[in-house]
Amino acid sequence: MDVAANCSLRVKRPLLDPRFEGYKLSLEPLPCYQLELDAAVAEVKLRDDQYTLEHMHAFGMYNYLHCDSWYPDSVYYIDNLGRIMNLTVMLDTALGKPREVFRLPTDLTACDNRLCASIHFTSSTWVALSDGTGRLYLIGTGERGNSASEKWEIMFNEELGNPFIIIHSISLLKDEEHSIATLLLRIEKEELDMKGSGFYVSLEWITISKKSKDNKKYEITKRDILRGKSVPHYAAFEPDGNGLMIVSYKSFTFVQLGQDLEESQDENMSEKIKAPLYYWQQTEDDLTVTIQLPEDSTKEDIQVQFLPDHVNIVLKGQRFLEGNLYSSIDHESSTWIIKENNSLEICLIKKNEGLTWPELVVGDKQGEFIRDSAQYAAIAERLMHLTSEELNPNPDKEKPPCNAQELEECDIFFEESSSLCRFDGSTLKTTHVVNLGSNQYLFSVIVDPKEMPCFCLRHDVDALLWQPHSGTQDDMWEHIATFNALGYVQASKRDKKFFACAPNYSYAALCECLRRVFIYRQPTPMSTVLYNRKEGRQVGQVAKQQVASLETNDPIFLL
């Protein structure tokens, strides 16, 4: 059985600046232009039944301004009349007057449970469009940058069930067969989820194809669904359509389309009453896994394979437990024995001593963790100062008690770390996994429309931009740019709503919910001589911060 490769992101040290001194506030004026619209943007407010954090992430924080990455000067939005409006942005000059390029054939206001209409620019001549009611449109546009050849024409139009938004789409041409792959996001109700939010996130991978040049009709040729518990920060197809990459807090897995609901309910109920398959304990140095063996089991019936990040247990020819471990182990020192009570005891030696594992096998819920009395006593001792009547019950400790009000957002520890996963389009299995740990996801941006969108992660205090590639493991994620200290700076912006950067990495922009937009520019040479008074050296470059305060309190959208 193929096992997903555990990978890591390789930072290019030459792109880091350890001597970066911070951003200097610049009072240089920023050009601001205002344009009145004849119809409001088709903004959709969250309903009362859309109350979870995932609903807010997916729909409440939606950006209604869409930049055409194939023609960077073009901006689109959808208004209340169902019109797709296009305007041209000429930097430092003016805003062009919006013009209608397409009108949705359905009345958006007639649907009570609709989502925000979404649009994705698939290629220089194709657009994927959702009206927010559950209908998908594929539109041939001609060359959008040429007004003479631009003509928006519906090539595919079909109802696909519950409302969704479009996350990503690509255009493919293989053996004269033209296909468009789209990734759709829904948040569905889960009736059996009694402990969680009662919802799950669905990503549907739909491929729509035209078999030959003579055949003008496009049809759905493939539908696959991924299911998870959190809205992905990032999800995009590889340019060749052979894979999908997702960054999310909680993992996604492919599920069978059309799986019988009653069967799945029976399976879920049986899982709830099923006894644990194994029990496990841990110390600072190792983990102990105990499995009750079937009667008359012998040593020859047991096969245990240890890998640095993986374990595989086979009992009597059947796979008992297999998967990626939460952290690395010393596989050469790990052992297993058969106890007198007909149980299998496995000892895994931790490679990172002192690290507490929240789970044994990533995503596996079949085991039960047992904490011994010594661990309970140690935890109680560490937490005693939180319940004492005195401010600092141990006078021998020099460190003052922690004041939570003094903590900054950048000091907050995320209980669940994000992961970056690559899924194979043919096998529908995970092939590569990167545990992002404390590398907080910040934003995504399209640098080259022919490549996958880039994503930006926080590394220590910096913000690093990564370009995914559909290639081998060694160059699958490339570090292409660094925004110095931006990871730390953005953490202080409590009201941030959108985050982006220029395709040439010259600046990053952070937009708050109302009024203010912060711009952080890369260091540029100084025209005058400037010295660092502390170190007595000349400063050759300065990074500037600019702030734009808008005259309105209306919600802001960012290109």
TrEMBL record:
InterPro entries: CS_dom (IPR007052), HSP20-like_chaperone (IPR008978), NUDCD1 (IPR037895). GO terms for cellular component: cytoplasm; nucleus. Gene3D superfamilies: 2.60.40.790. It comes from the Eukaryota. Pfam families: CS (PF04969). Residues 273-361 form the CS domain. It is found in: Cytoplasm; Nucleus. Keywords: Cytoplasm, Nucleus, Phosphoprotein. This is NudC domain-containing protein 1. It comes from Sus scrofa.
